[in-house]
Design brief:
With about 220 residues, this protein is an alpha/beta fold. The chain contains 9 helices and 5 strands. The protein has one domain: Rossmann fold, CATH 3.40.50.300. The structure holds thymidine-5'-diphosphate.
Length: about 220
């Protein structure tokens, strides 16, 4: 059995950069690393993703939204994530089931217990070993996202500030309830500092000293 790490946090939090840097480092250790994202990550998931994020789909009800995210998740777990873990590999996933609890549960107000049941069915009970939450004040996250070039402005980004605040509070609450799994990091720190903290947390699993800062300097990370 391999190791499963998920990343949560708003777009401007630098999730993609952190996942890439971590993947490079783990591969240097000789590990078989698969990087993927939700929703999407499979041909079917990408089709579902397009329906979910299309700004024209204003009429989508929260229940349909939760089930579509879960449908994409059911597919990626069975087609991609589980097989890679079974081969002993590492999986780094950009968003996972916690996104549904945060956005559709805390954000939209759907019943959390119901969502946990749906999620357990969709994931076949597969939960991450570690979840990194890159935390950012809501205004800062939206500002970064608005300023970023080449990023599509999707249906969920367009939600009100209050919605994004509930989502953030949801993440912080879930993380506080399960500190064994969650690693909460302030995304306003420099990229190198965030990456170092992630590597330190995972080093125990690798039985390696976290030489994160050396490696980062050598690689000339941004
Ligand atoms: P994406 O463009 O991938 O955003 P990001 O770069 O922020 O990850 O769009 C994914 C959006 O879908 C994002 O706003 C979070 C939302 N989402 C949910 O609401 N529920 C979910 O279960 C998942 C996986 C994502």
């Amino acid at each position: 059995m391999g190791f499963f790490v998920t990343f949560e946090g708003p777009e401007g939090s630098g999730k993609t950069t952190q996942i890439r840097l971590l993947g490079d480092w783990l591969r240097e250790q000789g590990l078989d690393v698969l990087i993927t994202r939700e929703p999407g990550g499979t041909a079917i998931g990408d089709r579902i993703r397009a329906i979910l994020l299309d700004p024209a789909h204003k009429a989508m009800c929260p229940e349909a939204e939760a089930l579509l995210f879960s449908a994409a998740r059911a597919q990626i777990v069975r087609e991609v994530i589980r097989p890679h873990l079974d081969r002993g590999g590492w999986v780094l996933c950009d968003r996972y089931a916690d996104s549904t609890l945060a956005y559709q549960g805390y954000g939209r107000g759907l019943d959390l217990e119901m969502l946990r049941t749906i999620t357990a069915f969709a994931t076949d009970g597969l939960w991450p070993d570690v979840t990194v939450y890159l935390d950012l004040p809501v205004e800062e996250g939206l500002r970064r996202r608005q300023q970023a070039e080449g990023i599509e402005w999707n249906r969920l980004d367009a939600e009100q500030l209050a919605f994004h605040r509930r989502v953030r509070e949801g993440y912080l609450e879930m993380a506080a309830a399960d500190p064994q799994r969650w690693l909460v990091l302030d995304a306003r720190q420099p990229i190198e500092a965030v990456q170092k903290a992630i590597r330190e947390r995972l080093a125990a699993r690798l039985r390696l000293p976290a030489r994160a800062s050396d490696t980062l300097e050598r690689r000339g990370a941004p």
